[in-house]
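Example record for the data management plan.
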Amino acid sequence: MEHQFLIPLMLLIAITSIALLRRLGLPAILAYLLTGVVSGPSGLNWFSQAQMHSVAELGVVLLMFSLGLEFSVPRLWAMRRTVFGLGSAQLLLTFFISAAVAFYCGQSLTAAIVIGAAIALSSTAIVLKLLKEQNWLQRRHGELSVSVLLFQDLAVVPLLILLPLLATDAEALALLDVFNGLLKGTLAFVSLMAVGKWLLPKLFDEIARSRSDELFVLATLAVALSTGAFTQWMGMSMALGAFMAGMLLGESQYRRQLEADIRPFRDLLMGLFFISIGMLLDVWLVLEYWWQILLLLVVVVVGKGVIVYLLLRLFGEPVQNAVASAMTLAQVGEFSFVILALAVNYQLLDKQISTELVMMAVASMALAPWLVKHSVDLGKRMQQAVNNQVLDEPEFPLEVTREQVIILGYGRVGQTIARFLKVEAIPYLVLDRDPTRVTEARNAGEPVYYGDACKASILGQLGISQAGMLVVTLGDRRVLEELVQMCREMAPGLNILVRTRDDKNLDVLEQAGATQVIPESLEGSLMLVSQVLYKCGIPLSRILKRLESERHNHYRDLHGFFSGGESDFTLEQLHAVSLPEGARVIGMQLGDLPWHKLRVELRAVRRGGTETEQPAADWLLKSGDILLLQGKPRRVERAEQFLLQS
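Corresponding structural encoding:
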């Protein structure tokens, strides 16, 4: 069959695989690898790995360019202790142990170095995505994991310099060759930095002035590929040059635009790269050596996890953070595929070993979502076991009075509330699920207890039906609705105050039983408004009345804003519509207009320089009236078209 027919079929397989694995919660990388297996020599034999290699290599080049954009010297310096301390310790220890085991098992020195490097790396793309989905990037174990990943990504650069040197001959690697290679790489880096620091900003300044999106994208691709060609000409990999170009532009004002422009090309070509990796897999070898692959998977995942755990404990981190970070970093990463692919091209690994390593990496990536999602819970259980405390059955006070305030969640907000209650001598109890925080607070004499607020049995023991007020400060909006509804059923007369980030679920939480929902972002705006009004001489009583009115109306004036060039078009916006003489609605009453179909809100009508908020339904529209509409952009646009029809 001709290639022009095979390529659409291959893309169809990739699309189907991605859709299927997404439903199973697995990363898209596995779908590309599966497509490569089906399309390659082990499957339908539509393409060979060599046919895909040239195009697929561009994916690695653009990936390294994007990685370079993320590396800023100030960011690395701010995280230097964990990035260069913990990161280097993890990488070197894992590398040397893995290489030593491979060498002991009969592999050559060069093969052992490649195997050690591939196993030492973890998946930046998968880990960051999963941590972001769980809102764990700002947690301590998330910060530790990101620091290690940053150093691993940085370590890819010397590995890209080292691999071509390993391929020079089959003899033992000479230290002089390594020194010469690193010196050559340093010279290339310095020369590109010297020229690029002066040339590239001026180049992109001129391109930005042209206001041509096509020219900007072409220039970005040209810079990435040109620097890659330069380093390849010097005997190193193209990916190294692209990384340097990304670093040069990483601190420029165009970094975000460059990243956005390059992402579609990078994702597409990286998909082809992983398809080419899948073509390396020999299905029959996998079936023959499945038990070795399974054993290798267990050894690598457990081994990497133990190494990270021990290092974090050595760095003074609590058990909970150490366990969570260890499980997060236990998989093998996408750059391992890059190293293995280059090693196969340079003939540093035989087919059996490369197939086993690729399959092990694929399996570890498939395990990554499960490991990351359960890392925090397992970490808490391990912390509980270490502390020798039975925290699942807390010993709550025997009596809870009507004056008592119960706080669910002892984070920043919960602790702030508790401090002000203590100053006013108002009794309170706190429930939290962080064992370290609970231990620290109890040692300081605070009435803080460990327990899961989502369990009715624990809330019953806590005595919420006798308390006067319940304050919910938990940040996970997925459990808030169920929690509030359960608390309302257990205590129908209880005052329930719920803190949220914004007001997206305000109506839902009030319907579930919340007495009042306090959105942090909107309340911050109200506090700023109150200070402005107070400084302008407005009486405090009027300010407080205005604030209460705003809360009662669900923060009506804090929604709907006039759009600008960089507006978020997913939010509601304000738009003024001036009625010309020939408009069809002239002479009609506001109540006669189909507002329920238009699905927008009429905020006010301006006539003759006077604005009338919430005009009556019998308001008669005249030529020159300005209607202030609020709603989603598409609905506002449709409403404007309706109002202006002649």
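Summary line stored alongside the record: Residues 175-210 form the longest helix (36 residues).
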